[in-house]
Amino acid sequence: MKADERFFSFEKDFRDPYARDRDRVVHCSSFRRLEYKTQVFLNHEGDYFRTRLTHSLEVSQIGRTLSRMLELNETLTEVIALSHDLGHTPFGHVGGDELDKLLKADGRPLGFEHNFQSFRVLTKLEKRYKDFDGLNLTFATLEGVLKHSYPYKKPFLEGLDPRFALDKHPSIEAMVVDHADEIAYTSHDIDDGIKYGLITFDDLLKDELCLRVDKGVQNEGINRDDKLYRHRFVAGLIKLLVEDFMENSKVGAKKYRQEMPICASMDAEERLPVGFSKETATQLKKLKKLLLQKLYKHQKIARKMHAGKQCIIGLYTAFREDENLLPPYQKALFDIRTKERVIADYIAAMTDRYAMKTYHEMYGFSL
Fold it and tell me: Number of folded domains in the chain?
């Protein structure tokens, strides 16, 4: 066999199945687009803000740490984390919410749901093989992306491969990713919000969980007016949540490893084997409620999200009224999918800046 033939042979793969999944996700176009998709703050507003890509990397880092410490499958955790937001639209959750309304108003009861859209990206919308759609990923990866932590029994999923057992919890690795996601977005939204003056430590330090973090930071000899305080606070919040999760999940993870097949689903009636302590879970819920009121509903964010919503409405309306505004390769998909679904998929795949650019081209003014 010639050297080049040996190099390009696809008969054998030295990677394990989940490492292969991870590599296929990292090299797909949907993953690269996450760099210019909004997490909370519009990407073009500043270079510091987190995006869907940086968020996915942070979730992956936290998830890998948790899985390694709990002796779970670290690579499966990694690929679920890197894939979990692939179905998100431009402009954060507001984009998905608006597409959902538009599709349902057009008589499409499935609407738009980002978990399922991520699943569709991985199984239908990415094209890397001649004979089939999708990235050809393992069942465990796809189940983790679809379900997150809980059963995902939705009426629009009737007919899905019964192996997905929609009435059951997913693997414990998927549950770890779900909690790593919560740790990541809570901490980095605080970091971004403080950095750009949308929320203050005066707001945060009325919260029980934040006071616990503050105590740890001050024990390091760093005061609240110190330049390093924000960085140490965010790191301290992540550390507190990670350590609480690990301590509270050790017994459940060990029991799961001993009694369940690798990456197995769990009956819906069973209690999740991993999670935060009751005290921390309650305090985290209160902190997220505070962030909703003080940060996510801030006037500056609300105005940008309203502009994003109008962009989504404008794009969908224009494509719905005149299909010739769509690229030829999108119109060709009308043979296998409804017009409304093709339009929604096209918009959902856009980055923030491409969506705004396209809107400007069709309506003649910028948002």
Answer: 1
